[in-house]
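Risk register update: the risk of archive-format incompatibility is retired. Evidence:
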Amino acid sequence: MAVDGRGSGSGTDVLIRKVDGHLAVLRTGLHGPELELAEELAGCLRELVAATAHSSAADRGLVRAAVHYFVLRRESRGKLLPVRSLTAAQRVVNKAVRQLGRLDLLVETPRERPAPEPATTIPARRV
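Archived output:
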């Protein structure tokens, strides 16, 4: 009896839908740098899910864990279970990116990005 390889379509689709659904929720409450970070994390996770669709079970599991960490932000119940921050999700996603050797997908924080070069102006000469 021939055994077909596991289809990558359904597993990757589910993970991408989870990322997109969570991002849609975040878009309603976040603004500025936090929303930008959430968008970058979601883009990175989508890329990782697609890139590891036919990889080893260990690689797919690593990406699945990163997706779940991003998506499953616990509800706050007093001081016992704080809501996970996006920076915590960023650390988990970046760890997965490093382990998979996809350094091109590292998600930087705004302070890690180089500041734009200030425009140099030449003072006007008095005539």
